[in-house]
## 1
Amino acid sequence: MTTPRTQHLVLPGVLTDRQAAATVAGILAGQREDGAIPWFRGHHLDPWDHVEAAMALDTAGEHTAAERAYTWLARHQNADGSWYAAYADGAYDDVTDRTRESNFVAYVAVGVWHHYLTTGDDAFLDRMWPTVHAAVEFVLRLQQPGGQIGWRRDEDGTATRDALLTGCSSVHHALRCALAIADQRGTTQPDWELAAGALRHAIRRHPERFLDKDRYSMDWYYPVLGGALTGSEAADRLAEGWDRFVVPGLGVRCVSPNPWVTGGESAELALALWAAGESDRALDVLRSIRHLRDEESGLYWTGYVFDDDAVWPRELTTWTAGSVLLAVAVLGGHEATCAVFGGHHLPRGLDPDCCG
């Protein structure tokens, strides 16, 4: 039965109250006792998708489970503030990818701020502050003179200077959430403010500073989702790529022109559309991926190859379900989720003085 905690997860044509409850239960079933949320049991965990699933749990009022997810991150943080790119779903959390990706590391700030807004738990914010602070400092050590942030540090410690537009857009969002956390605690972080402004300037004005990944839909909508593009810039960006990436009635292509739509990209586009003031189109996109829903588990298939009429890959992931719940939550008016993804009350940081 729908409760005041979950009524915002009921959306006509997308989720009924029973379906919303089943999706939440599906994510909870994938979470381990220690708080870790792998893609699915037996697969790996990566820090970004772990946070995405934890945020979805908070939208449903499952605050204890979400806090356990953040506690797992605090326990597994490396001495340099990072996390590895992938951990095995096993008793010892064996590391399966020892690179450390900047956007994976930064995203903890988005989740921690979202959890605080859903709970008002100042003690939690204080406990997680050292974790967030160390993560942001790791990420900013990868920032280049042009404002863009290198996308990873290799196992041997070598920093990659190349920057990814999608990853940097996500980092931009995370820096603003980190600044909100600092403000709430009465802590000034002027270096973070400068970094956020320089990064936003690079995203808005200097596409040449990023690797060319134009075929990927994430590079299309993430500057909007991450809050770097707003207003008419956001509207123009979304209009420019619409016909290339959106397949009416099926969802959003992961890569153009491949005949493969994916649930995660579709739900994230819905979040970006909502943030840009296009709620009707966001609802249409969410309705278009109902075919990816598995009613037995409440989760969603990662993608669908429409030329072959085939679900692929054959995996039901916690993070895909999480992205759907977050998109539904903003359309349902969930205050904390709207605040995090709307960005109107997030600190902007400082814009650079020059336009170089």
## 2
Amino acid sequence: MIFVTTSHKPAKEQVLKARKLAEELGLPYLSRKNHSNLLSFVGDDYCYVVESDRIVVKYKNGSLFFHPSTAKVRMRNIKKGLKDHLIECLGLKGDEFILDTTFGLGAEAILMAGFLREGRILGLEASVPIYVVVREGLKTYRDKEEWINIAMSKIELLNYDFRTYLSSCSDGFFDIVYCDPMFENPVYESSSMNPLRPFAVYATVTDADVREMIRVARKKVVLKAHAKDSMFERIKVDMITGSKKSQVLYGVINKK
């Protein structure tokens, strides 16, 4: 059973937010007072829990919640002078309008936004549970590292499948289009990604998809894949860069 509830002993505002979310999603609202053991009601499904400062999706094997994930670690490494392959291949000037077609928890979007003085990012997330959790996180999460809070303010998130959204865009509407689909060969050691897996959309990026990305990009398209994936065997790119250690690769297509 999929439903919306709150944490124990909720404030009035939590109840109102939970009821509003239930109405938005077309789901039942269950009072936590009468449902202390959530997992007994969830079964093989999941539920949305409106807590005092965030929304969490709980399911039998864990919970999904928003956090800046690897963005903080990667920015610290950049400030130490270490190379970040994504940031290097983007070549940001600071005023770009970027489309992130597969947002997920948004770690890479937050990192990118950290380099945008005047630019902004539009993120697309097709999975409703991920979208709900991250939409709330971008609004309410506050970090001790102020650059993250500023970066999140430059991001807008929509609940869209990227194919549907791209078809509605005019040519060259974005400066850069970024696509980070779920890997064909998952890295299960990635603790930040594991809670996301039950809810992620596993769509193979095709040549037709990339042609649409190129059409709506003014400067370049950047694709992400694992070295063992078939992405860069199937899709021609101008340049591939990445880490031998992590085997995460970025392919760049420059707009001609």
## 3
Amino acid sequence: MVDVIDSTIESIGCFCVDSVSSFTRNRILTPKTLIKFILGLQDHSLSAEISGYFTSSDIDIPSVSAVSQRRDLLYPEIFKSINRRFLSSIDNLSTLNGYYILAQDDTQISYGQDSIVCQYHLNALYDCINHVF
């Protein structure tokens, strides 16, 4: 996944509100850090997510406002592109009758008033046939 994020960042201008000036200044929240943070979000408040993510890294903790402002520089399509690139990177893996046999160890199911939400933590996803995470 890191390779997919890196290759997407090489063309970050295609996914920014202002392709000339967005992400040109040196900030705590680089595009890579911001994207990895967003992809790792869980179901906590933004301040709790920021605190949990950045206290375990060597980066200063940004404010909620800073994260929101940097996020507003990106078009949502960047995440669709990352997802497409990631999925296409596993096309050459072996399958069983066309199905990938995957194992994961962390699932959260939430039952709302009108919906059911099922979250999988893909950082723990394992391909049982190809023996890769």
